[in-house]
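REVIEWER CHECKLIST
Item 1: Sequence provided? yes
Item 2: Single chain? yes
Item 3: Sequence as submitted:
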Amino acid sequence: MRAKAITRLLFTVGVITWLALVITDISILFSSTNHLTPDIPSWLPGVILNLFIVALFYFYKFKVERDDVLNFVDLLWRVFATGLVATVISLALRLLEHVIGKPNTSFLVVFKGLQYMINLGLMIGFLLMAFTAWKRLILYQKSKWLLRLWSFFEIGLLLSLILNSFKIHVLDQLYVPLLGMFVLVGLVLSGNMKWVAYLNFRQKWTSLLLLLLTIFYLLYIFYTNNSLTEDIGNMSKSFTHYSSHIFIVSLMVFVTVYSIFSFLVILFNLPTTSVFEQKLEEVVNFQRISQSIQTEQSEESVYKILLETSVSTVFADAAWLEINASQLEYKLHTYKITDKESYDIINHLKTHNIRGILDQGSDKTKNLSKHLASLKGSRFRSILAFPIYVKNENIGTLALLKELPEGFNKEMTKIVSTFANQAGISIENFRLMEEALQNERYKEELKIAKMVQKSLLPDVLEKDDDFDIAAFSESADEVGGDYYDTIRINDHTVSLIIADVSGKGTTAAFHMSQMKGIFHSLAQSDIDPHEFMVRANQALVYCLERGSFISATFFIIDTNTKKVRYARAGHCPVLYHCSAKNTTEYF
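Item 4: Structure as written out by the authors:
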């Protein structure tokens, strides 16, 4: 908002100073032609003109120089549009002059003075617009030296306004040296055309047209103002002559020279535009392959990008990518060619023992285009193939095809070879990332399974005055299937189960939870251990998948009878140690 307010203020100041310049200059001109002494000081129009220039200078500085959205062509378009408006208004004044004809002397003086002031204002506005636009182009890739030189040029031009603000004859002697210095600095600055290299072919043609019309507008406005100064000079010498204004003359020379230089540089760069665009596209394609690991979701997406970038870079007509799924099988990815055409070419090359293409041997078959032409129904005459390596292992072959014979040169071969190598690195990185993600998922699942297992095993086991039960379980890196639990049936009876679930990880934890539910539901019924095993087995039949099993030993400890009843189902035997007799035996 602040920048917009400043822009509006500067525009308003520019309009007011121009109106003041018109009034003062025409008054002095009218008084001079009628041999009257003007009431206005002779130096006042020069001061007002400089204020008008400063207001317009900073108006364009805020309007154009700080607009980051504008690109190169937009800047040229704005200069062209400003020149077009100035030229149209100037032509309209010429037409009005033709319609009026030859009026009396007093009216002619006023009309010529007004026409000159309007054309002078249009010329200054056009020059300052072009000056600001050329500044952005010159400083597109700036260095310290270039920035200092431009600052010297710009500040010097603004300081030169002092020469025209006051009629100091001593300073008039500096006119020619200062003008020569500004012209020389302007020529040095005009050699900075680095922005041209970033234009594509279409933008260069557009820029040429805009610059050509801009040069035409400049020449027309210069011619018109020169004609008007001659006409007014024949009537009186007391008017604001722009040719004595060092700022305006320096600006005219610089803007015109840079416009012509830009036109010539763009014109001579047209033949190399396609080469630059191709190199730029190669860089973009290479970056696209490199970033595929971050943007794509599967290896197939990387293969697709490799095909598209390779075809567009070397202007191939079709391509296929053969990926080895195993030693006997391979998967084909095609681009602008059918699977049948690809298989026909592959089989044709193998059948006719054509070497150095798909086999990547050093002994290459000559006259390849003739061999391809001998394949019925094939439209291709050139083929270029490269292996894809991942960890020094050939995982496939990239083949590019053209309908023209000898369609691939050495430069194209190097480029596609680089793409193939980078694709191999991207695929390797993609696989490593997939492996890392799988490991991360496995670790997360393992963490969850350990939490589940910990929650399934009781923290405190049942105990009595007649016995104590202690348990310890420690699995390795993976979650084990060990399960134990107790439940009190009544005051003198406790059930104990020791089980081992097949499998590891989340599967084992899931089966443990099933076994825990069965144990708690059946043990409370106070059934015989053998009956417990039968019913538990019937329940697990519908829970476990084929190949999974649970081994278990079930105990019922009765403190009244001092007996332990048990049943074992595939579990390892239980050792019983009698401390009184100091003996150990299996149950």
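Item 5: Key structural point noted by reviewer: The longest strand covers residues 393-402.
Item 6: Recommendation: ____
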